[in-house]
């Protein structure tokens, strides 16, 4: 009796989970990205990024630093400067303003040597991915790009029951994605655009 009960419950929850997933909105395929969209995409500094800061004609002020977990950096003459969330150009202008208190008309260039990006923007993949992890968000990133980075899905994955959870206009929403169609069927209509902060959940299949 116990075995029959367990089988019944397993079937019930499998059916419930599938029905719940199928009721979700499926994301549309990736739209064509224009050259204007690519040009407007700006990288913003994140924790753990490595930066090279060059101060023209001031070699002693030029340095290489890593952004601390609190999002700040320390460079010669400037302590605890907030770097995260700024573009390299914006950060360079802030450094110029701070250095202007000590030297005349500083000219600063910020070069990002190692890209990680803001913590809140990272794309997280959990469940039956080959290598579940958090990835730095990249402009024009797609679901296929993410799947390549994590090594695809396991043989136990219910790929077409996978979901993406994201924040849309301040609200959390969950959408269905079709990983089996994309990875095993080669259906590029299942390739969707990834947004900063997306969480991809890949459930295990019920056998």
Explain what this protein looks like in three dimensions.
The protein is α+β, with helices and mostly antiparallel strands. The protein is 25% helix and 24% strand. β6 (123-127) and β7 form a beta hairpin. The two termini are 20 Å apart.
Give me the strand/helix succession: HHEEEEHEEEHEEHE
Q: What would CATH call the homologous superfamily of the largest domain?
A: Outer membrane lipoprotein wza domain like
The largest pleated sheet is described as:
5 strands, mixed
Sequence stretches where pLDDT stays below 50 over 5 or more residues: 1-19
Shape: elongated
Bin the strand percentage.
Answer: 15-25%
What is the top-level CATH class of the largest domain? Alpha Beta
Tell me the total number of β-strands.
10
What is the name of the CATH architecture of the largest domain?
Roll
Biggest sheet: strand arrangement: 7-6-10-8-9
Helical stretch tally: 5
Total domain count: 2
CATH fold node name of the largest domain: Outer membrane lipoprotein wza fold like
* End-to-end CA span: 20 Å
Class by alpha and beta content: alpha+beta
* Percentage of residues assigned to helices: 25-40%
Determine the mean pLDDT: 85
* Radius of gyration computed on alpha carbons: 23 Å
